[in-house]
Amino acid sequence: MDKSKALQIVKEQLTENRYKHTLGVRETALYLAKRFNIDYNKVEIAAILHDYAKYRPVEEMRELLRGKEEAARFIAYGDELLHAPAGAYFIQTEAGVADGDIVSSIYWHTTGKPNMTAYEKVLFLADYIEPNRTFPGVEEVRETAEKDIDAAIVMALGNTIQFLISKNVPVFPETLAAYNDLVMERK
Ligand code: DGI
Ligand code: FE
Ligand code: FE
Ligand code: FE
């Protein structure tokens, strides 16, 4: 998959604002990737395609995930989560992406998970801090990301968990485990 093809196929799936967010995630992910010895081309394709399923009908995503042994449990935790694992499947079946780093970073981009790879960390954090994001606390996470990517991810996960609790929404187990994993690793 080359970048221009990825941009073209994702554009058809997204609104104008979501496409703008996607370009922001691409820019931030490439910037963060400089601190790891990883493949920039894979980082870029993952960033471009990360919200591929964002506007798919919820029923279509539920139906797809119901049939996947490991992904079915996302369904119970809220519709907002489904585009991440669903997108990871659709880019394989509809766009022919096969690379495991690209697929797994998209799969986990919303929830995070313990023991994230560099690809997974870069996409997770880029999605949270890209320049078009304006939610409370994002500037502090951006500043922390300049010095320490894991510390920034802890802040992003903590903010998300607090936000979900304030809304009385269930927290996906891997989101909590990701937080615990990084906090304990840093002690
Ligand atoms: O798709 P984006 O808007 O770019 O961002 P995203 O993929 O990080 O999705 C954010 C949404 O996901 C937001 O509504 C909060 C929700 N979310 C994140 N982690 C969890 C979660 N929702 C639940 N129920 N549980 C989680 O652990
Ligand atoms: Fe997303
Ligand atoms: Fe996110
Ligand atoms: Fe996103």
UniProtKB/TrEMBL annotation:
InterPro entries in UniProt = Diverse_Catalytic_Enzymes, HD/PDEase_dom, HD_domain, YqeK
The record ties this protein, via SUPFAM superfamilies, to: HD-domain/PDEase-like
Q: Metal-binding: is it a keyword of this entry?
A: yes
GO molecular function per UniProt: bis(5'-nucleosyl)-tetraphosphatase (symmetrical) activity; metal ion binding; nucleotide binding
Catalysed reaction(s) here are: P(1),P(4)-bis(5'-adenosyl) tetraphosphate + H2O = 2 ADP + 2 H(+)
**EC top class, in one word?**
hydrolase
EC numbers for this chain: 3.6.1.41
Q: Which Pfam families match?
A: HD
Residues forming the HD domain are 18-132
Membrane-spanning intervals of the chain: none
User: Is-annotated flag, keyword Manganese?
Assistant: no
- PROSITE patterns from the UniProt entry: HD (PS51831)
Q: Which UniProt keywords apply?
A: Hydrolase, Iron, Metal-binding, Nucleotide-binding
Give the PANTHER family listed for this entry.
BIS(5'-NUCLEOSYL)-TETRAPHOSPHATASE, SYMMETRICAL (PTHR35795:SF1), SLR1885 PROTEIN (PTHR35795)
Q: What is this protein called?
A: bis(5'-nucleosyl)-tetraphosphatase (symmetrical)
Q: Which organism is it from?
A: Marinococcus halophilus
Organism phylogeny: Bacteria, Bacillati, Bacillota, Bacilli, Bacillales
- The gene it comes from is yqeK
